[in-house]
Design goal:
Strand order of the largest sheet: 8-7-6-11-10-9
Helix content: 40-55%
CATH topology of the largest domain: Beta-Lactamase
Distance between the termini: 36 Å
Oligomer: single chain
């Protein structure tokens, strides 16, 4: 018997002669995260055609190894740090950082501030690359770090591109992970802010992840018109006023327009 290869409908290969059901089910669970932000025990049980106790044991083992993590309030599972690390390694292998680095450097030279490349990772914004400003007082590299997406400029720019049902999956309780006192705390407030992001065409962050840092970001859409990443420019609050945000966003958008066909 032959089955379609995951992620490549037109390619087929022979199934293993001696499959291990528990391993097969665990891998199927991980593949479910390609289509869903969160998975509940009942959904895993139904999809795998196993009992709830079996599904729970499989999820618990994946959580133990860091592939997924459980939300304390909803008890649903979402992708964990191990998947983030694997995803980052794959991104590195694809050389997206090297591909986009010249654009980040160009923007850094034009604006004189630190520039970041970010992607959405569940409820977090993951920093893939950073090009630091040469100024003595500057924001530093954040490569490999994550912050709550709703509190970052790049996270907001990417969240604003998602369909409403995707936001519902990400924030099922309506409560948001804590940021700083300046960041929003409810999904309703976030939705209002995302409407502003869509209207302006950029996301902003004024002390919402770190008290003295401001940032502006624009989303990069892939050839499939999906949010692929975001480019953010960050600076000390004293050097990036609210009046300057639109001008910075315009410079980022000009770069994003030139590289849209490359991601």
């Amino acid at each position: 018997m032959r089955q379609a290869r995951a992620g490549a409908p037109d390619a087929v290969r022979a199934a293993p002669r001696y499959p291990i059901n528990s391993v097969d089910n665990a891998l199927k669970l991980l593949l479910m995260f390609r289509e869903r932000q969160v998975i509940r025990v009942s959904e895993a049980s139904t999809t795998l055609s196993v009992g709830r106790s079996t599904a729970h044991r499989l999820l618990a083992m994946l959580e133990y190894h860091g592939f997924i993590q459980q939300d304390a309030d909803t008890k649903a599972y979402r992708s964990g740090p191990a998947l983030t690390e694997i995803g980052l390694a794959i991104v590195h292998a694809m050389d997206i950082r090297a591909q986009l680095r010249p654009y980040l450097e160009q923007l850094r030279d034009e604006l004189g501030e630190t520039v970041h490349l970010m992607v959405l990772q569940g409820m977090d914004a993951l920093f893939l690359d950073s090009v630091e400003s040469s100024r003595a007082l500057r924001t530093s590299s954040r490569i490999g770090r994550t912050y709550p997406a709703h509190a970052t400029s790049g996270g907001k720019a990417l969240l604003a591109e998602l369909a409403p049902e995707r936001l519902d999956d990400l924030y099922p309780t309506g409560k948001l992970p804590p940021g700083t006192p300046r960041s929003v705390t409810t999904k309703a407030d976030l939705e209002r802010e995302l409407r502003l992001v869509r209207r302006r065409g950029y996301g902003s962050n004024r002390g919402e992840t770190e008290p003295d840092i401001a940032a502006v970001a624009v989303a990069i859409k892939s050839s499939l018109n999906r949010p692929a990443a975001a480019i953010a420019v960050s600076a000390p609050l004293s050097r990036l006023s609210e009046k300057q945000e639109a001008g910075v966003a315009k410079s980022i958008a000009a770069v994003v327009e030139r590289l849209a066909d490359t991601v």
